[in-house]
Amino acid sequence: MSIASIRSRPAGAGKRWIVTKRSQQVDHLDPLTREALSFILRLKSGEATVGDAEQLIDWRGRSPAHEHAFRDAVKCWRAIGQALASGPARPVPRRRRASATKPRS
Q1: Is residue 7 within 8 Å of residue 22, measured between CB atoms?
Q2: Is the separation of the CB atoms in 77 and 40 below 8 Å?
Q3: Which of 104, 31, 103, 44 is closest to 74 using CA atoms?
Q4: Do the beta carbons of residue 76 and residue 32 sit within 8 Å?
Q5: How far apart are CA 5 and CA 53, in angstroms?
Q6: What is the pTM assigned to this prediction?
């Protein structure tokens, strides 16, 4: 098991940390949106074929839900691009906690 496949999260107040594998986490992404994102990734990879583009056109035409999922995936892709273009996130400065002990005189 690699470190990249593990995430620590607090179990709750006063409890110990629980380490979970990513495969155990709940995936909240809609399956159609996930499929649409895979089409976008393929088309943006630089290795897409005309057949890949035709498959996407057919996929989008299956139902209004497919078209809606594709539009959501495009919005997601654009948001990621904008976030990446804005540069690395700046770390938030940590504030020191007030000391529980009295200062020495």
Answers
A1: yes
A2: yes
A3: 44
A4: no
A5: 32
A6: 0.57
Quickly tell me which residue has 């529980």 as its tokens. Answer: 100
Alpha helix (H) residue ranges in the chain: 31-44, 50-60, 64-85
pLDDT, tens only, 8-19: 444 455 556 566
3 state SS of 10: strand
In angstroms, the CA 26 to CA 68 distance is 23
Contact 31, 25 (CB under 8 A): no
Mean pLDDT (whole number) for 19-26: 58
Report the pLDDT value the prediction gives residue 101, as an integer from 0 to 100. 61
Q: Cα(43)–Cα(52) distance, rounded to whole angstroms? A: 7
Instruction: Report the alpha-carbon angle 21-25-31, nearest 5.
Output: 130
Q: Which two tokens stand for residue 54?
A: 């035709």
